[in-house]
């Protein structure tokens, strides 16, 4: 029966290599390895037995090797140990160390410059505005740093900076606090760092009219919103104030409806769903829309009374609820904030409640729609983006940049069974760039890049997806 060892060896290889493609478990790999060992033992010859043992070991190690190789595909570079990525925008990556900041090339990770700062473990956030980085270091000193050389340009008086909210390219509006609730808006000159004007703020005024994209947005260093004015005030009333001078351009009440700001445009909604957009600098009405044909949806942080602007457009829905949980039906309807022009895209999600989202900087692209299985009836989650639909099991979050879309879902990984899988796709071509086994990983948008993080604290590993 000399053929038995050979048959067992063939069955072992077939089971260990082929079955994992169809059976979401590590069991076929171990079964195949066991059959190889048995085949070697039955051969009763040293060389075949040794070869079978080596093949069994290789088969057991193969899933880790193959998936490790695949996890590295589509990754531009990994953040070096001891550094943490704080910004990835317009070709520049900025990492933090205990003793300062380091500028790197976003595509390659190559070091460009270093900036030494006082050592500390406190909260650090970095924003980019054109050729300036605005840095809130752990010593609460707000600094401006040159993008090209990393040289410090100016410092502002130490205060707790809560939000770097709005910029017109020459000024930036920031929310700074000496102690809660003693907070104020400061309009700073980007050239000198001097305070041009200031005003006390409370409640929703802390956000300066910025349409927060999600509930966790205030804890992130979002790119400052582009506008020529800000909304300041309290929980009752607001003022639209010119960013350069502080001049009051328009006033209103939160009781009358919600607002959105973008460029020179102020959009106001009423409780019955009517919309009106004006150029606050000139007072000219740009467009209006009567009630009865959909409501503009709110930003996910509903306490701000701000209309959502994913990708810089308004989203119409039947109820006008926040964009992280609304009903759209079979169409995605959006309005251009400058013209009021409506665009419609067909949806085929099959779910009632959906989430609408966009990149951190508005690009005037069509927003992305995520439909989760809220009813837990076994239907897959669906992501509608750029004319394509991605169906996956148990999608938790979707993260997008101008040209990439990434998400984490339950998936089948060869040789290890089911688990969390991170995928990244090119939004133009639809080509999959990354498939990363994500047992201890997540993916996040970091400005213009998607970043895969594994581990935590001192053992954190961050990988930048090819931009």
UniProtKB/TrEMBL annotation:
Gene3D superfamilies: YVTN repeat-like/Quinoprotein amine dehydrogenase. Keywords: Membrane, Transmembrane, Transmembrane helix. It comes from the Bacteria. Pfam families: PQQ_2. Residues 139-292 form the Pyrrolo-quinoline quinone repeat domain. The chain crosses the membrane at residues 49-66. PANTHER family: CELL SURFACE PROTEIN, OUTER MEMBRANE PROTEIN ASSEMBLY FACTOR BAMB. This is Putative pyrroloquinoline-quinone binding quinoprotein. It comes from Solirubrobacter pauli. The lineage of its organism: Bacteria, Bacillati, Actinomycetota, Thermoleophilia, Solirubrobacterales.
